[in-house]
Structure formats: C-alpha cells, structure tokens
Design brief:
The chain is α+β, with helices and mostly antiparallel strands. The protein folds into 2 domains: about 150 residues, no CATH class; about 120 residues, Heat Shock Protein 90, CATH 3.30.565. Helices cover about 65% and strands about 15% of the residues. A 5-stranded mixed sheet has the order 2-4-5-7-6. It has a two-stranded antiparallel sheet with strand order 1-3. The chain starts with a helix and ends with a helix.
C-alpha cells in the first residue's frame, strides 16, 4: 500500500504527466459511457476527440488566465469580454472538427457547411456547441478550485505549525540557560563547604544536563522520565536546604509510558524552590502532588512565600519563569490543559491539568 502511495505521489509531482493522465481518463470515460445503448461503439470516442481541442483551450484559459488574472483581480468587464470571445472561438473550433472530422470518419453523407457558415451561424454555436464545450471545463475548474482551497489550507496550517515551532524553540532556549544557571548555582554553594555529597551532585547534574540537551529535542517524553528528572532536581535542592525544608512529593502514575512535553513540570517545581524556599530562613514548605490516571494529569505544587521578598536587580527572573511555562503550555497543549494559580500573601499554589490522551491524538 505504501509503494502504491509513493507512486501516486510521484505522479502528482509531475504536472505534465498528471494533466495527460487526467485528460486521457476523461476521453476514455466519455467513450465508455457513450457506448451504452449506442450500436456504433466508435462514435462516442470520435465525438469526444472532436470536442477535446476546444475543451483544452477553454479549460486552460479559465484556469490560468480568465479566473486568476481577471475574475480574482476584480476585472469583471475584461473577464466577461474574454469569456464570451473564448466561448465563440472554442465553439467554432468544436463545430469545425465535428463537421470536417467527425462526419468524415463516420462516413456521413450530409452536406458539409462552408466555413463562413460555421463562423456566422450563431444559434447552433450558442445552443449546442458552447454547452458541450464548456460542460467538462466547468467541472475541471470546480475540481481545481477545491484542490487549491485545500492546498492553501494545508499551507496555512504548515506555516502556523512552523511559527509555533519557532516560538516554542525560542522559549525553550530562554528556559534552559535559566534552569541550568540555578542548578549550577546550587552546586557552587555546596562545593564551597566541601560537601562529601559533591560526587553524587555532579552525577545527578550530569543526568539533568543529558536530559535537557538531548531528550528535550523530542516532542514528547515518557512521564516516568520526567518524574526521574524532577526527583534528581529535588535531590539537589534538598541537599542545599537540609532538614529545615518541609518537603513532600506524592506521585501516583498508572501508566508510566504516557507522553508529556519535556521540562514543563520541572519548571513549575523549580519556580516553587526559587520563589518559596530561596530566601526563606525559617521553615519553608513545598508540597508536590503528581497524579496520572486514565491519561489525565493532575499536578499541584504548593509553597510558602518568604516574609521578605528578595530583590532581583538584574531582572534575570523577570519575564522568564512562569510566563515562559504558561506560553509553552498554550503552544503545546492549546485546548488540552488548564493552568491556574491560587496565591495569598504567604502561599502560592500552581494547579495544572492536562488531557494527555487528547494531546497524543492531536500531536
């Protein structure tokens, strides 16, 4: 089936071959249909071939000149004048072939009209030949307009996807350095105290770097891989804060292979540590609940806020963190997610739900 599809696509890519096959099929179809109830099996084929030159002229004038160059550009007077002129010329051509070719091949004894009569006898041209000449061109133009409509629609969808992909890539390019900067900063703090945990920290950081630099190129990653990344990040943070952090991570995943966009969940967790535990010299609290059931994700991250808000004179945090994540969610899961924040003076809670099954069907 795939080979047949490939052959068909190659034929469609060759415009000349496509047109030849199309007109050949039209002649054969006309000839076959015309044989029903007709004792002369040759007559329908000869009849169609006699109309074919006029139909070719009429069709290609409509498709490549009259409709795109005149009608679509609102040159209606020129379109009407051009159409009537081409209708007259093609009708004359069709009548000429009908009289001097069709009747000759079929050995008709009828007296042939002189050429001057063919040119000046308007009633048969209008009531007979124009109708039969333009019947198939109108059908062909309709097919062409429908095809162009769907081609344009596919092109717009492709451009829209390219735009979304480019914007998403830009957002990730912003987020990754931001995330890595904070992680390396944590590592630097611990190494100042010559912690024995340094080798383990380096190993976990290496796993995080591998994930962000390689796995994140995928459109989706298994949820268990994202959870593993979150756990590695949490381990790094817990080494930094120790027992003074009231931390809970509850997770329940019924299908570990279900796909999710990389780093979205981690970014929300990072935000809780950065704006919750960081700068709080008391006993900060961070509670995380992750649940995936029947391909429905529920992710809740709660954190307390420090009494004294840290000043960020560099504006490094501004405009990158959660605004970035929200925009990624809109781009990746446009109608499949809900994200809301419940914030008080002392607490911050992020709640995210994603229909991962619908997301997989669309992606």
């Amino acid at each position: 089936m795939e080979k047949i599809e490939n052959i068909f696509n190659k034929i469609l890519e060759n415009r000349v071959l496509t047109h030849v096959l199309y007109w050949t099929a039209s002649v054969l179809l006309w000839a076959i249909v015309g044989t029903f109830g007709n004792p002369n099996k040759l007559e329908p084929l000869v009849n169609k071939l006699c109309y074919l030159p006029a139909q070719l002229i009429a069709t290609y004038l409509l498709i490549y000149y009259q409709i795109p160059k005149l009608a679509f550009k609102k040159k209606y007077a020129a379109f009407i004048g051009s159409f009537f002129l081409s209708a007259y010329v093609t009708a004359v051509i069709a009548r000429f072939f009908k009289i001097y070719v069709y009747e000759t091949i079929l050995n008709s004894d009828e007296l042939k009209n002189p050429i001057i009569d063919i040119l000046t006898d308007l009633p048969p041209l209008l009531y007979q030949y124009v109708l039969w000449v333009y019947l198939f061109p109108f059908f062909t133009v309709l097919i062409k307009l429908i095809k162009d409509h769907f081609d344009q629609k596919r092109k717009m969808e492709s451009l829209k996807k390219d735009k979304v992909s480019a914007e998403l890539g830009f957002l990730k390019a912003q987020l990754h350095p931001h995330f890595l900067f904070n992680t390396l900063n944590n590592l630097y703090t611990l190494t100042l105290y010559k912690s024995d945990e340094a080798p383990g920290i380096v190993m976990k950081l290496a796993k995080i770097l591998d994930y962000t630099l390689h796995q994140d190129k995928n459109e989706g990653i298994a949820i268990d891989k994202e959870v593993e990344l979150i756990e590695n990040y949490i381990d790094l943070e817990l080494l930094r804060y120790g027992d003074r952090l009231d931390f809970v991570f509850n997770k329940s995943v019924d299908n570990k292979s279900v796909k999710i966009a990389p780093l979205v969940l981690l970014s929300i967790v990072e935000n809780a540590f950065k704006h919750g535990a960081s700068g709080d010299h008391g006993r900060p609290k961070i509670h995380i609940d992750l649940k995936v059931e029947n391909d429905q994700l529920l992710f809740e991250v709660f954190n307390t806020k420090p009494k004294v808000v840290q000043m960020d004179k560099t504006n490094f945090k501004k405009g990158i963190g959660m605004n970035n994540v929200k925009r990624q969610l809109v781009l990746i899961y446009p109608k499949q997610h809900q994200y809301k924040v419940e914030e008080t003076e002392d607490t911050y809670k992020a709640l995210l739900t994603i229909d991962l099954q619908l997301a997989m069907a669309i992606n």
